[in-house]
Amino acid sequence: MKTAVFSTKSYDREYLNRFNSSHSHELTYFEAPLNKNTVNLTVGYEAVCVFVNDDLNKEVIDELSSKGVKVIALRCAGFNNVDLDEATNKGIAVVRVPTYSPQAVAEHAMALILTLNRKTHKAYNRIRESNFSLERLTGFDIHGKTVGIIGTGHIGALFAKIVLGFGCNVIGYDVNENKELVDAGVKYCGLDELFKNSDIISLHCPLIPATHHLLNKNAFDKMKDGVMVINTSRGALINTTDAIAALKSGRLGYLGIDVYEQEEKLFFKDLSEEIIEDDEISRLMTFPNVLITSHQGFFTKEALEEIASTTLKNLTDIEEGRGSKNEIKV
Ligand code: NAD
């Protein structure tokens, strides 16, 4: 299938090229994201292949349809950046990679916790400058702490097993309870109870209207003083202005984020020689107890292989008229 592949980096091209040898799709790579400014690049393509920060709103989908695009292949699981209703109206199939190493994201959430807690990033830099002092590197035992997990689907469930392994009390909130986790020792509770009792809160639910700014001032006010909050899910689950206020007051003791509400202007880019226009990320970067990674939770060899192979198979299934089991239906 003649496919315009947007938001590509060297690693995307490497893995897609490797797996395309058994599919032979005609792939054209663009570094730019797909949005209203770049949609004209899709003239003559049957499919577009996009990632988390491409913006497929109604206007973009209408343009894709008028140019003859029949398939949107997401190289990710989340689809909050695609107007699905409009895609359905225009008869454009939307396929995704529903799971690609949920372990990668669950393990990254744990990496954020361990780094924030034991300050290994600071120790690394100190030692490189021959500073062998332990001053201000005190952490806490994770064993015995209460970890609250919001969203216990693929990633949240694996994360629950990791923290159970650390000897934590694990409590969960989800609109659907997972019986296997209950059997493993996770106790489900209401959101307010989770906020009140957790030493560490990790977000693993999707970004939907019901979860937009789920962690806002009202939620932070209900949490324990000094709570650690981890977000590897989607940036807009947290109201950044309220998180900054909670960090300043000390209510929020640690914040680890792999996602950020305005990340599309920043993440995946080297801006080291640029002026950062976003004052909220700049403020977050100044806190000693905030750790930011640039949406790298998924970024393992295994996940890149799964993303490339599933994306190409999704295109083949649609092209050969079988339909794809990974098509998102509204
Ligand atoms: P999933 O669909 O398996 O699980 C999501 C869970 O959230 C489900 O159990 C669902 O019932 C629950 N949920 C839905 N609405 C809820 C609500 N209002 N309150 C609480 N829980 C609710 O998804 P997953 O594969 O576990 O992925 C979770 C999220 O992780 C995705 O939505 C995506 O945004 C994010 N993600 C991030 C990365 C990364 O690189 N950082 C990679 C992949 C996915």
From TrEMBL:
Give the residue range of the signal peptide. Answer: none
Source species, please? Answer: Mangrovivirga halotolerans
Q: Which PROSITE patterns does the UniProt entry name for this protein? A: D_2_HYDROXYACID_DH_1, D_2_HYDROXYACID_DH_2, D_2_HYDROXYACID_DH_3
Record Gene3D superfamilies: NAD(P)-binding Rossmann-like Domain
Going by the UniProt record, its keywords in alphabetical order are: NAD, Oxidoreductase
Please give the family membership noted in the entry. Belongs to the D-isomer specific 2-hydroxyacid dehydrogenase family.
Q: What is this protein called?
A: 2-hydroxyacid dehydrogenase
Q: Which residues form the D-isomer specific 2-hydroxyacid dehydrogenase NAD-binding domain?
A: 110-297
Q: D-isomer specific 2-hydroxyacid dehydrogenase catalytic domain spans which residues?
A: 5-328
